[in-house]
Sequence to fold (477 residues):
Amino acid sequence: MRFSPLLTDLYELTMLAGYFEEGMHETPAVFDLFFRHNPFKGGYAIFAGLDTALSYLENLTFNDDEIAYLQGLGIFKPGFLEFLRSFRFRGRITAMPEGSAVFGREPLVTVEGTLAEAQFVETALLNIINFQTLVATKSARICHAAGKASVIEFGLRRAHGPNGGLSVARAAYIGGARSTSNVEAGFTFGIPVKGTHAHSWIMSFPDELTAFRKYAEVFPESCLLLVDTYDTLKSGVPNAINVGKELLAKGYELLGIRIDSGDLAYLSRESRRMLDEAGFPDARIVASNEIDEYVIESILAEGGRVDIYGVGTKLATCSGTEGVCALGGVYKLVRIGDRPKLKVTSDIAKSTLPDRKRVLRVIDPDGSFHMDIIALADEEVRPGDTVYNPASPLQHTVIPDDAVIEELRLVVMENGKRTRPTPTLDALADHCTEQLQQLPQGCLRHINPHIYKVSISRRLNDLRNRLIEEVEQGYLV
Fold:
């Protein structure tokens, strides 16, 4: 899949032109993509978007029309525009597997290549990974709240444009919503598609019962009826039961009902009672209408009987308790040539972590995640070692002696080509499920979650402190 190279901020091109004019464009460079704070004030994030990002990198080229457009801007010299004609990404990508539980400060993706290659791809990688990671995290939160109930992604009509709709469906699947209403997502990614009918179908016929009957005639094997157009309990559910009995007489079964308004806890309880008493214990109840993890928790707390949640707006727009959320991922230079680099601020918590790095996960004997450690690429880390709080270096802890330490990241692209087969979406979603099962349970809370510990190694801590000291003494690093 080709993304236009013009999917970028102008400053990526002006910096690229500047590096070219200064003869710096072939200098080796390393950048990290990471975020500082978990989204939704939660206890974790779910990494997603890597496959899309790799497709962008593999197919990164400028065509004649794009070069002509840049020429027309009147700010780039002919030599630079000619350089762009042969521009490709030929670097290395090291990344977390998609579906992994990840946390603030951890480099999700490390990009190594020439300064031209590694700098230019910043905007597109952030665009792809920030959004899909945010959606996958929201989906995981919603699916965890739903428990044994299923979740369908219903967000296309509220998503941020057509490409946004596709990204939502893909990332939501990784997070646990294993079906979608988006037919193009079904075609593109092989995601199962689900759907029934709208209120307009009911209103297009003389009465609700006629509308239900006509729908059952067209789709007798997958008849799921929207029951809240007029009155859910006095009209919708009784009419659905009548049509269900007619289907039984013809050798079919009523698949279920959907409720799209009102008190979903109460209406689902009463609908379940009515369906059971009428002899339809297997009919499913689908709930939709502005649902998120908090609404689901409320429905369950009040004894709701929902089998399937159709989640649209709050998932596709990643709405949180304080409105729409953004991941806030950033892309920072950590090495140029043979020199490690860091960004220094007055707040050490916001300073970056220099140089090439490993990300390790400490796992307790029972298989649960204990903490993560960021270390230098060539640094050995063992049980019993002391590690440090990156936001407060005076705080430190010791890796338990009985812990297992696992490498979290893999080289997924070398010389601009993928190094391993693309996992299926099912495999990525299964990985996400396994990761969530291994997290400390407190991390899964939506209110006041447990803060999972991410530490830095001794050598990385020492390197950062030395570079900060050099900057404070007036050196350029």
